[in-house]
Design goal:
By secondary structure, the chain is of the alpha/beta class. The chain has one domain: Spore Coat Polysaccharide Biosynthesis Protein SpsA, Chain A. About 35% of the residues lie in helices and about 20% in strands. It has eight helices and seven strands. β2, α2 and β3 form a beta-alpha-beta unit. α5 packs parallel to α8.
């Protein structure tokens, strides 16, 4: 059976860590996949790292990396991708608005697809978050011409070989499906549950939820138009297929 590492980026989510660790334990006990967990503390200034250390100390399949300073979600994900050695990578946010239990739904398709991503059927977010997501999704779909329903859903399973070759820049976490499809990967979308925020506060407001995604969308639009692809017709190399 394929191995899985679940990456959990964390920034100031001290009130969620214990319950999240318990939820991850429950998933691990029920799945046939041999599963590890990798917390990436993105320079938290609260007690998140303390609780992460406690969770890892009591569980042999839990590990963590603590970054010197807060770099953002794309930085935390890139760090996690760089350190994973299993065949598959799972990704979930630490805020408990999605549940590890829904990894079962995604993993059912992991053998056939290179990226399986959730989409939130019923958003349990504030009006501002829903509005900004709709605007950002409309802009992305207009420019990128894709069929991705919910690129911001923080529940994904990706084949590690693809994750490690995706070009990363700040904001790239929003465009993992696009980057993977540019590289020839196959993508599957699966409905998942969404819950009200358990504790803490959102880290973004309307302005920074729109300006960053718009700039990133332009960067991905440029990449799509200039991505290098070629097919070899023949070669003198005897070992080349």
């Amino acid at each position: 059976m394929s191995d899985l590492t679940i990456i959990v980026p964390v920034y100031n989510e001290e009130d969620c860590i214990k319950n999240l660790a318990d939820a991850l334990d429950k998933f691990i006990s029920q799945t046939d996949f041999r599963t590890d967990v990798l917390f990436v503390d993105d320079g938290s200034t609260d007690r998140s790292l303390q609780y992460i250390e406690e969770a890892c100390r009591n569980r042999k399949n839990f590990n963590y990396i603590s970054l010197v300073r807060n770099g953002g979600l794309s930085v935390a994900l890139k760090c996690g991708f760089d350190h994973v050695k299993t065949e598959l990578i799972g990704y979930i946010d630490a805020d408990l608005q999605t549940t590890p239990d829904d990894f079962h739904k995604l993993l059912a398709h992991a053998g056939e697809f290179d990226l399986v991503l959730g989409y939130r059927e019923k958003r349990e977010d504030s009006f501002v978050k829903r509005l900004s997501s709709r605007i950002a999704n409309a802009i992305r779909k207009f420019l990128l011409k894709d069929e991705i329903i919910d690129t911001g859903c923080p529940l994904k399973v990706i084949r590690t070989s693809f994750a490690k070759k995706i070009p990363f820049f700040n904001g790239m976490h929003r465009f993992l499906p696009n980057a993977l499809m540019m590289a020839g990967g196959k993508v599957k979308q699966v409905p998942v549950r969404h819950f009200p925020r358990y504790a803490g506060r959102p880290k973004y407001h309307l302005f920074n939820r729109l300006t960053g995604p718009f700039i990133s969308t332009l960067a991905v639009w440029w990449m799509q138009r200039n991505y290098i692809r070629y097919s070899i017709k023949s070669s003198s190399f005897k070992d080349m297929v």
